[in-house]
Amino acid sequence: MLNPLKNVLQEHQLKATSQRLTLLEYMMTHDTHPTAEMIHQDLPNISLATVYNTLEKFVEKKLVVIIDGISDGKRHYDAADHPHYHVINTRTNEIIDAANYDPAPLIKAAQAATGLKITEYKIDLYGVDPDSKPE
Ligand SMILES: [Zn+2]
User: Which fold is adopted by the domain 83-135?
Assistant: First the structure.
C-alpha cells in the first residue's frame, strides 16, 4: 500500500525513516502547536534530541513552521499543510488557529512595494480577552 506520508518526505528529499514518519504524522494530526518537549512526552520512544533535530529538518524543508514570540519563551511548531494564521493570547499563551482571512491582498501589496516574489508568509497576532482584568 502507498504511504502518503512517505511520499511527502521523499518529495522533500528526506529519507523516510520510521521516526520521521511518526513525527510528521504527529504534526499533521495535532493542532496543539506543541514544543519539542510536548512531542517527546507523547512519543517517549523518540529522544528529545531526535525530536528537535527532526523538527528543524522539517522547518528547513518547509513542512513545519516555527511559532515563536510566545511569552513562555519556548519554540512552538505547527504543520505547514494548511494555510491559517495565529492569534496568541498573551495572558494564557494559548495559540489559536484562524483561517477567516485571505492574505492575497497583503502578498500583492508586499510584492508591489518591494519587487520581491513572496514565497512564504507567517501572520501572528497577539491579543487579550477584553473581559480579563488588567494586571
Ligand atoms: Zn496553527
Answer: Dna Ligase; domain 1 (3.30.1490)
